[in-house]
Amino acid sequence: MSSQSTTILIFACTMMILLSMFVVESSVRINETRLTRVRLHLNKINKPFVKTIQSPDGDVIDCVVSHLQPAFDHPKLRGQRPLEAPVERPKGHNSSDERVETIQLWAESKEFCPKGTIPIRRTTENDVLRASSLRRFGRKRKIRGVRHDTMSGGHEHAVAFVNGDKYYGAKASMNVWTPEVTDASEFSLSQLWVISGSFGNDLNTIEAGWQVSPELYGDGYPRFFTYWTTDAYQTTGCYNLLCSGFVQTNNRIAIGAAISPRSSYNGKQFDIGVMIWKDPKHGHWWLQFGSGVLIGYWPSFLFTHLQKEASMVQFGGEVVNSRSRGYHTNTQMGSGHFADEGFGKAAYFRNLQVVDWDNSLLPLTNLHLLADHPNCYDIKAGKNNVWGDYIYYGGPGRNAGCQ
């Protein structure tokens, strides 16, 4: 090899080394910058606490003074304190129709947060770093075509819904499962939706139920969760207490914490009761969990259309089908079994009701069923004297009929 060729080769190698060092250094700087932003965000949402409780699943529950929770970072709430519980619950509410066995893992020791504080699941660096971006942390993916059509951005549903009237709340009991979620960016949930607005960018929703979301929580446990948005999941709202919005008043339930026990196939069934309703006096939307336990409220000013009433109520399941391997996900909905299998095998909602203008709980009329992809996840409805209106729903995802 000539000396000139050797010189060129050495120069090329040197440039490659320098370029590699530059790329590594740039990557380190980017990672350090992101980590700095993540830590600043954690300082904002993880509030000072008076006590911590270690959960068996690895969660840390912080007991935060109630008026220092994230909701009170909102300009319209700053300096205020949580409201007292509404005196009137919806007429026709009967706590005896809900089971009380279901608890949360963190509370198995019977250790709770002191009065005047609320339990908040501590958010970790890993929780935030799993998100696609800091801006999207704690939020659902944007949903195209929110009217649950086939262009819904990977979101698939099996739901029962009512519309065509004015609704002031909804109530149901749903059994809790541990569906398999096969991709870290996917989730499987069961919830009720209180909805208003068109299905464009002005969509308002309030949502509550249980979900399995490895991206949000880092594991496969079913967890009690809430969500809200006032612009179709674009920039407003979040899960649980991950932004200013929902005001928690309860010191014994941690939103976002794992539910235990869960239902088993052909075995014992465990369900949770959820009720969302609009307080006629102040106009805020309150959340009740289990047998009459008030969790807190969404202030009415968070919303546009929901400042008045809801135009639709939905009950059922939702999954994200990312098709990350080029075919339909194996992520399960509900129990992972189809509706036809019935009690003990399929997931259910029972005692479906809505709240009317007179703050009364009523059975459903004009119930509609919708399954985006019935070969993947389906739904069926029924009615009897014990369960009132009910649905079975769910499915295994990918199978011979679901590709």
Automatic annotation (TrEMBL):
Ranges of compositional bias, category Basic and acidic residues: 86-99
InterPro entries according to UniProt: Glutamic_endopeptidase, Neprosin, Neprosin_propep
Annotated region described as Disordered, given as residue ranges: 75-99
| Keywords on record | Signal
Specify the Neprosin PEP catalytic domain's residue ranges.
Answer: 149-403
**What's the short name of a Pfam family annotated to this entry?**
Neprosin_AP
Where does the record locate the signal sequence feature? 1-27
Q: What is this protein called?
A: Neprosin
Lineage of the organism: Eukaryota, Viridiplantae, Streptophyta, Embryophyta, Tracheophyta
